[in-house]
From TrEMBL:
Protein name: DNA-binding transcriptional regulator OxyR
Database matches in NCBIfam families: PRK11151.1 (NF008361)
GO cellular component, one term: protein-DNA complex
Pfam families for the chain: HTH_1, LysR_substrate
Domain named HTH lysR-type: residues: 1-58
Gene from which this protein is expressed: oxyR
Length: 297
C-alpha cells in the first residue's frame, strides 16, 4: 500500500461515489476502483459493501478511513516541515473563511497580503464553521479565519479583531434617528436571524435573548445580505457585524445604530492545528490582518 491508496480511500468515503471520488483524485474510475480492491486484498478485509446504487463502508472500513485521515494529516505536516517554509511567507496557503466574514474581510486584507507577501499563494475556501473545522482537522486547510466558538476550542487561536455588532432597522423605524440603543430596548421585540449552521446566528441571538428578545421563527436567512434586504423591506430588525456595514449610517433603506449595554460582539481569530509547523506563518498572517483592520477602522 502507499499514500495514494489512502487518498483514494478517504475521497471515496467523502463522496460516497466512485466516479466523483475518482474525479477528485484526478484518476479514472477503474483506476480508483481497482486500487481499492487491491487494498482490500492486501489488508485481507472487506472495506465496502458494493451495490449499483451507493457506496457503503463496513465497520472495519470506517475505522480504516479514520486512520487514513490521520496518516494523511501527518504526511502533510511532514511535508510542511521538510519544505522549510515554516516562517517564510511563500508558497501555497489554504485558508478557510466563514460566509458572514469572508465577503467583507477579504476585500480589505487581500491587497495588503499581496503587497507584503507577494510570494504567498493564497487558496481561499468559504464554508460554514462545522465544515471548516472538519477540513482543518483532516489537513485540507492550513488555517481558518472565523469567529471563535466552542467548535474551535481544540485548535490554537490567534486573536485578530473584536468585531462589534450594530442594530439594523428600517429607515421608518422609531429608532432610526437614535445614535445608540440600549440592548434592553430589545426586550419583548422579535429579531430576524440567520438560519441554522451559521455561528453568527447563535452569537447574535445570545445577546438578543439576554435582552429579552426572541427570534422570528417564520424566517431564517441564508446570508447577511438577505437579512439586510429583509430589514430594508420592513420585515423586522436584526444585528449585523461591523465589517458588513457601509460607511454611511443610512443606506439603501437600512439604518445602522450602535448597540450598548452591553455592546454585542464576536471575537475573530486565526485558528490552526496545535501540531502545525507553520505557526509563524499564521502569526504573520494574523498580525497583518489586525494592522490592516485597525488602520481602516
Amino acid at each position: 500500500m502507499n499514500i495514494r491508496d489512502f487518498e483514494y480511500l478517504v475521497s471515496l468515503a467523502e463522496h460516497k461515489h466512485f466516479r466523483k471520488a475518482a474525479e477528485a483524485c484526478f484518476v479514472s474510475q477503474p483506476t480508483l476502483s481497482g486500487q481499492i480492491r487491491k487494498l482490500e486484498d492486501e489488508l485481507g478485509t472487506v472495506l465496502l459493501e458494493r451495490s449499483s446504487r451507493r457506496v457503503l463502508f463496513t465497520e472495519s472500513g470506517l475505522q480504516l478511513v479514520d486512520q487514513a485521515k490521520r496518516i494523511l494529516g501527518e504526511v502533510k505536516t511532514f511535508k510542511d516541515m521538510a519544505s522549510k517554509q515554516t516562517g517564510a511567507m511563500t508558497g501555497p496557503m489554504h485558508i478557510g473563511f466563514i460566509p458572514t466574514l469572508g465577503p467583507y474581510l477579504l476585500p480589505k486584507i487581500v491587497p495588503s497580503l499581496k503587497e507584503h507577501f507577494p510570494e504567498l499563494e493564497l487558496f481561499l475556501h468559504e464554508a460554514q464553521t462545522h465544515q471548516l473545522v472538519q477540513q482543518l482537522e483532516d489537513g485540507k486547510l492550513d488555517c481558518l479565519v472565523l469567529a471563535s466558538v466552542d467548535e474551535t476550542a481544540p485548535f490554537k487561536e490567534i486573536d485578530v479583531y473584536n468585531e462589534p455588532m450594530s442594530i439594523a432597522v428600517p429607515c421608518d423605524h422609531p429608532w432610526a434617528d437614535h445614535d445608540e440603543i440600549d440592548m434592553l430596548e430589545l426586550n419583548g421585540k422579535t429579531v430576524l436571524a440567520l438560519g441554522d449552521g451559521h455561528c453568527l446566528r447563535d452569537q447574535a441571538l445570545g445577546f438578543c435573548f439576554a435582552a429579552g428578545a426572541k427570534d422570528d421563527d417564520r424566517f431564517k436567512a441564508t446570508s447577511l445580505e438577505t437579512l439586510r434586504n429583509m430589514v430594508a423591506a420592513g420585515a423586522g430588525i436584526t444585528l449585523l457585524p461591523k465589517l458588513s456595514l457601509p460607511k454611511e449610517k443610512v443606506k439603501d433603506g437600512v439604518c445602522y445604530i450602535k448597540a450598548i449595554n452591553p455592546e454585542p460582539s464576536r471575537r475573530l481569530v486565526v485558528a490552526y492545528r496545535p501540531g502545525s509547523p507553520l505557526r509563524q506563518r499564521f502569526e504573520n498572517l494574523a498580525k497583518l490582518m489586525k494592522e490592516t483592520l485597525e488602520a481602516q477602522a
